[in-house]
Amino acid sequence: MLDMRRLFDGRKLSVAFEVSLWLKGIFALPEAVSGVATYFASPRILLTLALWVTRDEFAEDPHDLVANFLVHTVQHLSVSAQRSPH
């Protein structure tokens, strides 16, 4: 039978917590970089990127819900909405 005290040893939990924090930081870095890049990119560049990313999905299914949502959202971006503090 599994001893729960050994499984939840304080040192093991501490190491697991630290590892999870490092992984969270590693996964958050590309998200932060893409957020900054999106802030400085023009709507035209974002639309070009969205069309490039979704081209295979549209070739397979022109009515793909996610691809259409992404392109529709990017098409309706404006510079004022992009820079808005809200």
Task: Furnish the topology, listing elements before pairings.
Layout: H1 4-7, H2 10-40, H3 43-60, H4 65-75, H5 79-83
What does this structure look like?
- With 86 residues, the protein is mainly α.
- The protein folds into two domains: 8-40; 42-86, no CATH class.
- It contains five helices and no strands.
- It has helices at 4-7, 10-40, 43-60, 65-75, 79-83.
Give a brief rundown of this model:
The chain has helices at 4-7, 10-40, 43-60, 65-75, 79-83. The chain has 86 residues and is mostly helical. Helix 3 packs antiparallel against helix 4.
Helix content: over 70%
State Rg: 21 Å
Order of helices and strands: HHHHH
Q: Low-confidence parts lasting 5 or more residues at pLDDT below 50? A: none
- Sheet/helix structural class: mainly alpha
Sheet having the most strands:
none
Shape: elongated
Beta strand %: under 5%
- The first-to-last residue Cα distance is 55 Å
Supply the key terms:
mainly alpha; 5 helices
